[in-house]
UniProtKB/TrEMBL annotation:
Keyword Signal tagged: yes
Gene source species: Pedobacter endophyticus
Pfam families: Sulfatase
InterPro entries with a match to the protein in the record: Alkaline_phosphatase_core_sf, GAG_Ulvan_Degrading_Sulfatases, Sulfatase_CS, Sulfatase_N
Protein name: Arylsulfatase
PROSITE patterns in the record: SULFATASE_1 (PS00523), SULFATASE_2 (PS00149)
Length: 500
């Protein structure tokens, strides 16, 4: 009897110590840059700019050389990240105006909802750009729903679209911050509202001129002409220079508040998207103009987050994923001295193309996954995409991936244990391309070969293009005529994907 009792006591102790020592679920932070190029970081070969904090993250984790957003613009890439679906499957997923309705499903299938189902507290801080409410017409003066909450975020602190689109306000848990009942907000993308000066009629009021021909000449907020018209909410409008501090403060509070439980934070920064108005302490720091300065600002924010994690003792068991929503662009509508100040810096690095193009510069992005407790540091050439987070985390948590039909569970690739990653991947600009075994096929297109205003090499050609990325990562040598069978095979695969 005593013997039995002793035995069960020992078992109980062993059980307890197993429980106490069990690995807690890792926290997960996705840090998402806006328009950051493959060549913009020193850990990806940049020599004219130094990004020590992101470099340190890469050094402690896996640096992917073939990691992708799904599209060469923002909304479709973010849509795929959230839903695990290619955006070209759904109409209305192009770059959204600031008054668009929510395009992410609210049926518990989106990425944050997966984390909720796994017992995580979920937070979103930064740029959203996936729409709000049920329709374009909405009342910005009360809670706007549906929004991030209905897609699975317990907490959100966002601006609705892009920094260059109205309304230039923050929403915390879907309510405008600093709302004044006596000065209600109205937003319109078709017709001017109110009688505030526009960039078009009052260029003398601008602190950063818009380039002629671009659309940044409507309501002026903080001395910058924006896309879209707004009135009211004078006290609620943010200033561009405070964005990094505000978002960082909110991200850090979320981490601090949830340090005792597993959390998922989607920290979507605005840098280096236009308008580039760095905080004063970063002005001139990079010597590459404002675009360089805001990249340093972004790097600083990453460093502040990693410092905080260390301070709280969370650094070992937190997965940090760092990437960008699309390729780089130097001139995107404001006269911020972009090209003149580049000083030989190549935002897309060795790649051809950039934001808006179907070439590798459009979607191949900086892509770092760090988890000190589990991942052995190194470099991986596996083909991976942000669209795969959904199926991979669902798989890790043993949860069902209901609707993310294009998302692949490539957990082992993210962990550095599988060197291949996806079998193939579809890239999107105004048209589609497919990559398999490092062969890239770009469909014929009648779109413009260059966009003059943004200096974009779009990669559009009326004939088929085929590149062997193993020898020709810069997509200089179209070998479609030499390998007609390959072209056929990849066109068939792309057709089959579309038909799925
Ligand atoms: C374009 C804007 C550009 C940028 C982009 C969206 C003009 C001429 N250009 O329409 O400045 O806002 O949309 O960028 O207005 S993204 O990163 O959100 O996709
Ligand atoms: Ca973007």
């Amino acid at each position: 009897m005593t013997h039995k009792f002793l035995l069960s006591f020992i078992f109980c102790l062993a059980g307890f110590s197993f429980y106490a020592g069990a690995q807690k679920k890792p926290n997960v932070i996705i840090i998402y840059a806006d328009d950051l190029g493959y060549g913009d970081l020193s850990c990806y070969g940049a020599t004219k700019i130094s990004t020590p904090n992101i470099d340190a993250l890469a050094k402690k984790g896996l640096r992917f050389t073939n990691g992708h957003s799904t599209a060469s613009t923002c909304t479709p890439s973010r849509y795929s990240l959230m839903t695990g679906r290619y955006a070209w499957r759904k109409k209305g997923t192009g770059v959204l105006p600031g008054d668009a309705a929510l395009i992410v499903p609210t049926d518990n299938s989106a990425l944050p909802s997966i984390f909720q189902q796994a017992g995580y507290k979920t937070g979103l801080v930064g740029k959203w750009h996936l729409g709000l409410g049920n329709a374009v017409e909405k009342d910005w003066n009360k809670e706007v729903t549906p929004g991030p909450r209905e897609t699975g975020f317990d907490y959100s602190f966002i601006f609705p679209a892009t920094a260059d689109r109205v309304p230039n306000v923050f929403l915390e848990n879907q309510l405008v911050v600093g709302l004044d009942a006596n000065d209600p907000i109205m937003v319109d993308y078709k017709n001017p509202v109110g009688d505030e000066p526009t960039g078009k009629d009052h260029p003398e009021l601008l602190k950063m001129p818009a380039e002629v021909g671009h659309g940044h000449n409507q309501t002026i907020v903080n001395g910058v002409g924006r896309i879209g018209y707004m009135k009211g909410g004078k006290l609620a409008r943010w200033t561009d220079e405070e964005l990094p501090f505000t978002f960082l403060t909110k991200a850090k509070s979320f981490i601090e508040d949830h340090q005792q439980e597993p959390f998922f934070l989607y920290y979507a920064l605005t840098e280096p998207h236009v308008p580039r108005l760095p905080a004063t302490m970063f002005k001139g720091k990079s010597e590459l103009g404002y675009r360089g300065d805001v990249i340093l600002q972004l790097d600083w924010a990453v460093g502040e987050i990693t410092k905080q994690l260390k301070h709280l003792g969370l650094d070992k068991n937190t997965i940090i994923i760092f990437s960008s929503d699309n390729g780089p662009v130097v001139m995107d509508g404001y006269e911020d001295g972009g090209f003149e100040k580049l000083n030989g810096h190549k935002p897309a690095g060795i790649l051809r193309g950039s934001k808006y193009s179907i070439l590798e510069g459009g979607t191949r992005a900086p892509f770092i996954v760090s988890w000190p407790a589990e991942i052995k540091p190194g470099v991986s050439d596996a083909l991976v995409s942000q669209i795969d987070f959904l199926a991979s985390f669902a798989g890790f948590f043993n949860l069902e991936n209901k609707n993310g039909i294009d998302s692949k569970n490539i957990w082992n690739a993210f962990m550095g244990k599988d060197k291949k990653g996806r079998d193939y991947f579809v890239e999107q600009s105004s048209q589609l391309a497919i990559v398999k075994d490092n062969w890239k096929y770009i469909r014929p297109s009648n779109g413009l070969a260059t966009y003059k205003l943004t200096h974009t090499d779009t990669g559009n050609l009326p004939t088929a293009q085929l590149y062997n990325l193993t020898d020709d990562l810069g997509e200089k040598n179209n070998v479609a005529e030499k390998y007609p069978e390959k072209v056929k095979e990849l066109e068939a695969l792309l057709n089959a994907e579309e038909a799925r």
